[in-house]
Amino acid sequence: MKAVIAVIATVVLLLLLVAWMKVSVTIVFRHRQDDDEAKIVVRTLFGLLRYTVRIPLIKVDMDPDAPGVAFLHKKGMGGTRGKEEKRGTVTPQKIADLFRQLKRFLEQVVDLHEIMKQFYRHVTITKWEWKTRIGTGDAALTGLLVGLGWSLKYMIIGAASRCMNMKTTPAVAVMPAYDRTASETMFLCMIHFRIGHAMVAGWRVIKHWRGRQPPKRNPLAAKQANEGY
Protein backbone atom coordinates (compact mmCIF):
# COMPACT_ATOMS: atom_id res chain seq x y z
CA MET A 1 0.00 0.00 0.00
CA LYS A 2 2.82 2.38 0.86
CA ALA A 3 4.46 1.64 -2.49
CA VAL A 4 1.25 2.53 -4.35
CA ILE A 5 0.92 5.78 -2.43
CA ALA A 6 4.57 6.60 -3.15
CA VAL A 7 4.10 5.98 -6.88
CA ILE A 8 0.95 8.12 -6.99
CA ALA A 9 2.69 10.92 -5.08
CA THR A 10 5.67 10.76 -7.44
CA VAL A 11 3.44 10.93 -10.51
CA VAL A 12 1.49 13.87 -9.09
CA LEU A 13 4.72 15.65 -8.20
CA LEU A 14 6.08 15.13 -11.72
CA LEU A 15 2.86 16.41 -13.26
CA LEU A 16 2.98 19.51 -11.06
CA LEU A 17 6.63 20.05 -11.97
CA VAL A 18 5.87 19.76 -15.70
CA ALA A 19 2.88 22.10 -15.38
CA TRP A 20 5.04 24.66 -13.55
CA MET A 21 7.82 24.67 -16.16
CA LYS A 22 7.95 27.53 -18.61
CA VAL A 23 8.09 27.32 -22.38
CA SER A 24 10.01 29.96 -24.31
CA VAL A 25 9.06 30.53 -27.94
CA THR A 26 11.27 32.71 -30.16
CA ILE A 27 9.91 33.80 -33.53
CA VAL A 28 12.48 35.04 -36.05
CA PHE A 29 11.95 36.43 -39.52
CA ARG A 30 14.64 38.10 -41.61
CA HIS A 31 14.42 39.27 -45.20
CA ARG A 32 17.16 40.94 -47.17
CA GLN A 33 17.33 40.43 -50.91
CA ASP A 34 17.82 36.68 -51.42
CA ASP A 35 18.94 35.95 -47.87
CA ASP A 36 15.74 35.02 -46.03
CA GLU A 37 15.14 33.19 -42.78
CA ALA A 38 11.96 32.27 -40.93
CA LYS A 39 11.92 29.98 -37.92
CA ILE A 40 10.35 29.26 -34.54
CA VAL A 41 12.56 28.07 -31.68
CA VAL A 42 10.88 26.38 -28.69
CA ARG A 43 12.82 25.92 -25.44
CA THR A 44 11.83 24.36 -22.14
CA LEU A 45 13.36 22.59 -19.12
CA PHE A 46 15.47 25.66 -18.38
CA GLY A 47 16.75 25.72 -21.95
CA LEU A 48 18.00 22.12 -21.96
CA LEU A 49 15.33 21.01 -24.44
CA ARG A 50 15.21 22.90 -27.72
CA TYR A 51 13.27 22.37 -30.93
CA THR A 52 13.51 24.49 -34.07
CA VAL A 53 10.81 24.71 -36.74
CA ARG A 54 11.94 26.27 -40.01
CA ILE A 55 9.06 27.88 -41.87
CA PRO A 56 9.15 27.43 -45.66
CA LEU A 57 9.64 30.62 -47.62
CA ILE A 58 6.91 31.60 -50.05
CA LYS A 59 7.16 32.64 -53.66
CA VAL A 60 4.32 33.04 -56.13
CA ASP A 61 4.56 30.50 -58.95
CA MET A 62 3.78 32.28 -62.22
CA ASP A 63 3.61 29.09 -64.28
CA PRO A 64 0.33 29.39 -66.25
CA ASP A 65 0.04 25.61 -66.57
CA ALA A 66 0.14 24.99 -62.82
CA PRO A 67 -0.53 28.19 -60.86
CA GLY A 68 -0.05 28.13 -57.13
CA VAL A 69 2.15 29.16 -54.27
CA ALA A 70 5.67 27.74 -54.20
CA PHE A 71 7.21 26.90 -50.83
CA LEU A 72 11.01 26.91 -50.75
CA HIS A 73 12.67 24.93 -47.95
CA LYS A 74 16.21 26.25 -47.50
CA LYS A 75 19.08 24.74 -45.57
CA GLY A 76 21.93 26.91 -44.38
CA MET A 77 19.87 30.06 -44.03
CA GLY A 78 20.89 33.24 -42.36
CA GLY A 79 23.86 34.15 -44.51
CA THR A 80 25.60 30.78 -44.60
CA ARG A 81 26.89 29.25 -47.79
CA GLY A 82 25.87 26.03 -49.46
CA LYS A 83 22.15 26.69 -49.52
CA GLU A 84 19.93 23.89 -50.70
CA GLU A 85 16.37 24.31 -51.89
CA LYS A 86 13.50 21.88 -51.78
CA ARG A 87 10.54 23.11 -53.75
CA GLY A 88 6.90 22.28 -53.18
CA THR A 89 3.78 23.83 -54.67
CA VAL A 90 0.41 24.44 -53.05
CA THR A 91 -2.40 24.89 -55.55
CA PRO A 92 -5.51 27.07 -55.00
CA GLN A 93 -7.51 23.87 -54.49
CA LYS A 94 -5.23 22.78 -51.63
CA ILE A 95 -5.46 26.23 -50.05
CA ALA A 96 -9.27 26.13 -50.28
CA ASP A 97 -9.30 22.66 -48.67
CA LEU A 98 -7.08 23.93 -45.85
CA PHE A 99 -9.43 26.84 -45.14
CA ARG A 100 -12.41 24.47 -45.14
CA GLN A 101 -10.70 22.23 -42.60
CA LEU A 102 -9.83 25.23 -40.43
CA LYS A 103 -13.41 26.50 -40.59
CA ARG A 104 -14.71 23.05 -39.64
CA PHE A 105 -12.38 22.97 -36.63
CA LEU A 106 -13.47 26.44 -35.48
CA GLU A 107 -17.11 25.39 -35.75
CA GLN A 108 -16.52 22.16 -33.82
CA VAL A 109 -14.99 23.81 -30.73
CA VAL A 110 -17.58 25.69 -28.69
CA ASP A 111 -16.37 28.97 -27.14
CA LEU A 112 -12.90 28.64 -28.73
CA HIS A 113 -12.49 32.42 -28.72
CA GLU A 114 -13.01 32.60 -24.95
CA ILE A 115 -10.68 29.64 -24.35
CA MET A 116 -7.85 31.23 -26.33
CA LYS A 117 -8.50 34.63 -24.79
CA GLN A 118 -8.03 33.17 -21.31
CA PHE A 119 -4.84 31.41 -22.42
CA TYR A 120 -3.38 34.57 -23.95
CA ARG A 121 -3.68 36.28 -20.56
CA HIS A 122 -0.95 33.95 -19.31
CA VAL A 123 1.38 34.59 -22.25
CA THR A 124 4.17 37.10 -21.61
CA ILE A 125 6.06 38.94 -24.34
CA THR A 126 9.63 39.59 -23.18
CA LYS A 127 11.24 40.74 -26.42
CA TRP A 128 9.92 42.52 -29.51
CA GLU A 129 12.16 43.89 -32.24
CA TRP A 130 10.82 44.85 -35.65
CA LYS A 131 12.99 46.89 -37.98
CA THR A 132 12.24 47.57 -41.62
CA ARG A 133 13.91 49.47 -44.42
CA ILE A 134 11.74 50.54 -47.37
CA GLY A 135 12.76 52.20 -50.62
CA THR A 136 11.19 52.55 -54.07
CA GLY A 137 13.48 55.04 -55.73
CA ASP A 138 10.68 57.63 -55.56
CA ALA A 139 10.84 59.90 -52.50
CA ALA A 140 7.09 60.62 -52.31
CA LEU A 141 6.04 56.98 -52.61
CA THR A 142 8.74 55.91 -50.16
CA GLY A 143 7.49 58.43 -47.60
CA LEU A 144 3.93 57.14 -48.01
CA LEU A 145 5.01 53.54 -47.51
CA VAL A 146 7.05 54.46 -44.43
CA GLY A 147 3.99 56.12 -42.88
CA LEU A 148 1.85 53.08 -43.63
CA GLY A 149 4.56 50.85 -42.14
CA TRP A 150 4.55 52.77 -38.86
CA SER A 151 0.75 52.62 -38.67
CA LEU A 152 0.66 48.88 -39.35
CA LYS A 153 3.33 48.11 -36.78
CA TYR A 154 1.71 50.11 -34.00
CA MET A 155 -1.66 48.55 -34.79
CA ILE A 156 -0.19 45.03 -34.46
CA ILE A 157 1.71 45.95 -31.27
CA GLY A 158 -1.47 47.40 -29.77
CA ALA A 159 -3.43 44.24 -30.53
CA ALA A 160 -0.68 42.02 -29.07
CA SER A 161 -0.41 44.11 -25.88
CA ARG A 162 -4.17 43.94 -25.35
CA CYS A 163 -4.26 40.13 -25.65
CA MET A 164 -0.97 39.29 -23.89
CA ASN A 165 1.29 40.71 -21.19
CA MET A 166 3.80 43.02 -22.83
CA LYS A 167 6.75 43.10 -20.42
CA THR A 168 9.16 44.89 -22.73
CA THR A 169 9.35 48.11 -24.69
CA PRO A 170 9.06 47.20 -28.39
CA ALA A 171 12.05 48.23 -30.49
CA VAL A 172 10.42 49.37 -33.72
CA ALA A 173 11.86 51.23 -36.69
CA VAL A 174 10.81 51.95 -40.26
CA MET A 175 13.72 53.48 -42.16
CA PRO A 176 13.33 55.06 -45.60
CA ALA A 177 15.76 54.54 -48.49
CA TYR A 178 14.94 57.43 -50.79
CA ASP A 179 17.71 56.90 -53.33
CA ARG A 180 17.28 53.18 -54.10
CA THR A 181 14.91 50.25 -54.09
CA ALA A 182 15.03 48.40 -50.79
CA SER A 183 12.96 45.84 -48.93
CA GLU A 184 14.54 44.64 -45.70
CA THR A 185 12.88 43.35 -42.54
CA MET A 186 14.09 41.90 -39.25
CA PHE A 187 11.48 40.66 -36.77
CA LEU A 188 12.26 39.01 -33.43
CA CYS A 189 9.66 38.16 -30.80
CA MET A 190 10.07 36.09 -27.63
CA ILE A 191 7.11 34.86 -25.59
CA HIS A 192 6.83 32.74 -22.43
CA PHE A 193 4.05 30.67 -20.87
CA ARG A 194 3.76 27.79 -18.45
CA ILE A 195 3.05 24.28 -19.71
CA GLY A 196 0.21 24.00 -17.21
CA HIS A 197 -1.70 26.86 -18.81
CA ALA A 198 -1.29 25.24 -22.24
CA MET A 199 -2.50 21.93 -20.80
CA VAL A 200 -5.59 23.59 -19.33
CA ALA A 201 -6.35 25.29 -22.64
CA GLY A 202 -5.97 21.98 -24.48
CA TRP A 203 -8.23 20.24 -21.99
CA ARG A 204 -10.86 22.95 -22.43
CA VAL A 205 -10.71 22.55 -26.21
CA ILE A 206 -11.36 18.81 -25.83
CA LYS A 207 -14.11 19.41 -23.30
CA HIS A 208 -15.84 21.97 -25.52
CA TRP A 209 -15.61 19.83 -28.65
CA ARG A 210 -19.08 19.82 -30.15
CA GLY A 211 -20.85 16.51 -29.59
CA ARG A 212 -18.98 15.76 -26.34
CA GLN A 213 -20.89 18.18 -24.21
CA PRO A 214 -24.42 19.59 -23.79
CA PRO A 215 -25.67 22.27 -26.22
CA LYS A 216 -23.80 25.56 -26.31
CA ARG A 217 -24.37 27.86 -23.38
CA ASN A 218 -25.11 31.53 -23.63
CA PRO A 219 -22.03 33.82 -24.02
CA LEU A 220 -22.31 35.26 -20.48
CA ALA A 221 -22.29 31.82 -18.87
CA ALA A 222 -19.36 30.72 -21.05
CA LYS A 223 -17.37 33.80 -20.09
CA GLN A 224 -18.01 33.29 -16.37
CA ALA A 225 -16.99 29.63 -16.63
CA ASN A 226 -13.66 30.56 -18.20
CA GLU A 227 -12.75 33.19 -15.61
CA GLY A 228 -11.33 30.68 -13.18
CA TYR A 229 -7.83 30.10 -14.54
Description:
The chain has 229 residues and is α+β, with helices and mostly antiparallel strands. The chain has a domain at 109-229. Helices cover 39% and strands 36% of the residues. It contains six helices and ten strands; from the N terminus they run αββββββααβαβββαα. It has helices at 2-20, 92-108, 112-120, 139-163, 195-207, 219-225, and strands at 22-32, 35-44, 49-54, 57-61, 68-75, 84-90, 124-136, 165-166, 171-176, 181-194. Strands 1, 2, 3, 7, 8, 9 and 10 form a seven-stranded mixed sheet that branches. Strand 7 (124-136), helix 4 (139-163) and strand 8 form a beta-alpha-beta unit. Helix 3 (112-120) packs antiparallel against helix 5. 7% of the residues are buried. The model is unreliable at 75-84 and 212-216 (pLDDT under 50).
Short summary of the structure?
The chain is an alpha+beta fold and 229 residues long. The chain contains six helices and ten strands. β5 and β6 form a beta hairpin.
Our Rg estimate from Cα atoms comes to 23 Å
Instruction: Kindly name the structural category.
Output: alpha+beta
The helix content is 25-40%
What's the β-strand tally?
10
What's the mean pLDDT score? 79
Strand content: 35-45%
Q: SSE order in H/E notation?
A: HEEEEEEHHEHEEEHH
Terminal CA distance reads 34 Å
| Major sheet summary line | 7 strands, mixed
SS field, number of helical segments: 6
Shape descriptor reads: elongated
* Uncertain segments: 75-84, 212-216
